[in-house]
Automatic annotation (TrEMBL):
Reaction(s) the record says it catalyses: a 1,2-diacyl-sn-glycero-3-phospho-(1D-myo-inositol-4,5-bisphosphate) + H2O = 1D-myo-inositol 1,4,5-trisphosphate + a 1,2-diacyl-sn-glycerol + H(+)
Matching InterPro entries: PI-PLC_fam, PLC-like_Pdiesterase_TIM-brl, PLipase_C_Pinositol-sp_Y
Name of encoding gene: PLCD4_2
Enzyme Commission (EC) number: 3.1.4.11
PI-PLC Y-box domain: residues covered: 11-96
Protein name per Swiss-Prot or TrEMBL: Phosphoinositide phospholipase C
Domain of life from the UniProt record: Eukaryota
SMART domains in the record: PLCYc (SM00149)
Source lineage: Eukaryota, Metazoa, Chordata, Craniata, Vertebrata
Species whose genome carries this gene: Crenichthys baileyi (White River springfish)
GO MF term (any one): phosphatidylinositol-4,5-bisphosphate phospholipase C activity
Pfam families in UniProt: PI-PLC-Y
Signal peptide positions on this chain: none
GO BP field: intracellular signal transduction; lipid catabolic process
Keywords assigned by UniProt, alphabetized: Hydrolase, Lipid degradation, Lipid metabolism
Amino acid sequence: MRSKQRLSKELSDCVVYCKSVHFRSFKHARIHSKFYEVASFTESKARKHLREAGAEFVHHNSRQLTRVYPTGFRTDSSNFNPQGMWNAGCQIGDYN
């Protein structure tokens, strides 16, 4: 028989949860997104958003969490440099 573990309410209240969501558009995110949602982009998609709708992308990043990760087609030993995405307001820049 398994014993039940009880979590401390005070400890549980300290935990922050983020929900991964599919990004549809900046307009959709502006209307429907919740503060705890995070959208993920490949580096190429994020660069495209920055090029084509830079101000809107930066505004989106000021209200929502955004994660940028390296493109899967990287065949050499170069690493993704997250600095450009951080400068645009993206909060999470994976570089591994």
